[in-house]
Amino acid sequence: MPHLKYKRVLLKLSGEVLAGEQGFGIEPKTIDILADEIKGVSEMGVELGIVIGGGNIFRGLAGSAAGMERTSADYMGMLATVLNSLALQNILEQKGVHTRVQSAIEMKQLAEGYIRRRAIRHLEKKRVVIFAAGTGNPFFSTDTAAVLRAMEVGAEIVLKATKVDGVFDRDPMKDPSARKFSELSYFDLLEKDLKVMDATAVTLCMDNNLPLIVFNVKEKENIRRVLMGETVGTLIRKPR
């Protein structure tokens, strides 16, 4: 077994990552490549939990901005994360990766209900656990759900998978001269208003001293490189 810097991690995937180049829904080629990456790190012996957003299908904030009542819009967003979770579970199991989906909203025919001790037991047995439906509550993002689940199951770090190479002072997709940060503190993230995670998620990380790495998941083997302790993306942690 390779030497791992992190043994139990929480991977946060945005729904947009699953959409690939088509920009919406689930692109088969993209989710297949992602599943291969996850299979590779699972075979390294990593205990891996995953939280997926639902923005490729429906985003609660967007629905609210369009005039929909916020609570209903957020519940619709949670259901979108369940669709993504089931899709990822299906392709992982086709590749021989033992996977469990645990939903914060009870739906017995589709997924287990979220039970912390059961989730930890699955991780100990080296099953990939996908946490669906956010926190199960409106007004909380899937970023906040990822940090919450990471703390509950004792993950050592949150890996925030994005489409860019880390955290920048400006949007690198719009401004090629944007400067990348190799390391930041939680306070820097909040003070500079860098749109990486919402303030609730960042504050949870800060209060519980849970480190966070923001990295480009589209670059092959980046997840493995992070787990091996290589310098990838932007590390966010308490100042030394």
Explained architecture:
It is built from nine helices and eleven strands. The chain is 39% helix and 18% strand. By secondary structure, it is an alpha/beta fold. The chain has helices at residues 15-19, 28-42, 60-65, 70-94, 116-124, 142-153, 186-191, 199-207, 222-227, and strands at 8-13, 47-52, 99-103, 112-113, 128-132, 157-162, 167-168, 180-181, 183-184, 212-216, 234-236. The relative contact order is 0.16. Helix 2 packs across helix 4 and helix 6 runs parallel beside helix 8. It has a single domain (8-236), classed as Acetylglutamate kinase-like (Carbamate kinase), CATH 3.40.1160.10. It has a nine-stranded mixed beta sheet with strand order 4-3-5-2-1-6-10-11-9, sandwiched between helices. Strands 7-8 form a two-stranded antiparallel sheet. The protein is globular. The two termini are 30 Å apart.
Note the topology.
Layout: E1 8-13, H1 15-19, H2 28-42, E2 47-52, H3 60-65, H4 70-94, E3 99-103, E4 112-113, H5 116-124, E5 128-132, H6 142-153, E6 157-162, E7 167-168, E8 180-181, E9 183-184, H7 186-191, H8 199-207, E10 212-216, H9 222-227, E11 234-236
